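B., you asked whether I could sanity-check this one before it goes into the benchmark set. Here's the sequence:
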Amino acid sequence: MKQAAKGSSEENRQVDENWLLAEVLQIQGAAEVLNKYSLPCMGCPLMGFEVGMLRIGEVCRTYGIDSKKVIKDLNSLLKKKK
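And here's what the prediction gave me:
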């Protein structure tokens, strides 16, 4: 996952549009959130190759999905983890 910025705590990290899918999927429950918004990546045979290259913001824009809603739900998962 993303390294916490210097001086910030790991607990304060937040998903943003630049997170790679590989980072996002390390969050417990993230796959369910992505499925909720019908991101086709979850069933794509190329997922294994692209997961380390695609950013959540790019994927949402490509498929016309509101990235702000997806990111809000993903950040809610991070808050629950605390």
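One thing to flag: The chain has a mean pLDDT of 83. Otherwise nothing jumped out at me.
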